[in-house]
Amino acid sequence: MALRDLIPWNNDGTRGLRLHRNEANPFLELHREMNRLFDAFRSFDVAPLSSQAMGWPSVEVNETEKEVKVIAELPGLQEKDVNVELRDGLLTISGEKKSETEDKERRFSERYYGRFERSIPIDDVDQEKVGASFKDGVLTVTLAKLPTEKQKVKRIAINGR
Question: 74, exposed or middle or buried, with CB in 10 Å at 0-12, 13-18, 19+?
């Protein structure tokens, strides 16, 4: 396939981008054409490939000397819709967000529905001292760190020959 085969045909039978009558910048026209292409995909009932849909739910991880705190935003969910599991140094938050309306009633939606799972690597925590709370669509998981002895640093002299 030649490169020229990838160039779109215009309505007048010529190849290339369609420039508007008073359009002098081909990059602006390319931008418009790309927007038009993506607008065509919006007409399909397909979830967008955005960071929000792929990385849902949004999380924040805070760490102090004594604990690790993971906060996840789960709007529209209740405590019973969420599962939290800690296994082999991996904290997993999973569940399902169900739609409030049937698909045939929905005209357009940017909201995320369906099963979700988010895993966060967490090291050096005491599995017996883990707690979770859920309030107003915000899940907070608190994980106590394992007690570590402060290691003494010994300076080692280098002997020259």
Answer: buried
